[in-house]
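Batch manifest, entry 17 of 40.
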Amino acid sequence: MTVEVKICGISTPDIMDATVEAGADYVGLVFFPKSPRHVSLSKARELAEIASGRADVVALVVDPDDRLIGELGSKVGPDIIQLHGRETPERTAEVAERSGARTMKAIGVSDASDAERARAYADVADLILFDAKPPKDAVLPGGNGLPFDWTAIAPVAGDVDYMLSGGLTVQNVADGIAATGASRIDVSSGVERAPGEKDADLIRAFIQAAKSAR
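Output type: C-alpha cells
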C-alpha cells in the first residue's frame, strides 16, 4: 500500500499547485492567527479551489467556536477539519455534525500514556493525528518541527485510523514509516526554508521519499 502524504500549512497559490502536482493526498490550511502559516478565509478559498478534485483539503483549527466552523463550511468547504486544540470527544462529534466534514483529532504525544488518549476519539473522529506534544512554553500546538518516540503509539496504532506527524523530514520519513507502519504521513516545518515559507523542491522530495518507503 502506498503511503498517503499531507503537506500542511500551505499559504500561497504557487506552493499549493506544486504540492498537488507532486502527488500530495491531503493539503492543510491553517486557521490559527499565532501561526506563521495562518491564512484568511478568503485566501483559503482561493487555495482550496486550486486543490479541488486533486487532493483533500484539511482545515486546521484550534478550539474553534461554532461561528468559525460555519464560516469554514460556507466559504472554504474543507473535506476534513483537523482539531488541534483541547477539543473533547463530545466537541469533536459536534464539529463533525455541524460541518458535515470528516474530522481529524490531533493527539500530542510524549509517551505511551498520551497516545492512549486517542482511544476516546476512535468512534467520533475519522482520523487521529499523532503529533509531538509541544513544549509547555510553545505558542503553537503543532508545527514545531519536533519528533517524538514513535514506539509510544505502538499499543494504540492498530486500534485507530491515524496519521503520523511531528518532526518528519526527507531524511527521516522512511524511518518513521518503518518504525510505526504508518500509512499516512503529515509534514509542515520539515518542508520549509523558514517558518511559514514552504519550499517546492523539499515538498517534492518529501512526497517521493514517503511514497517510495514501501
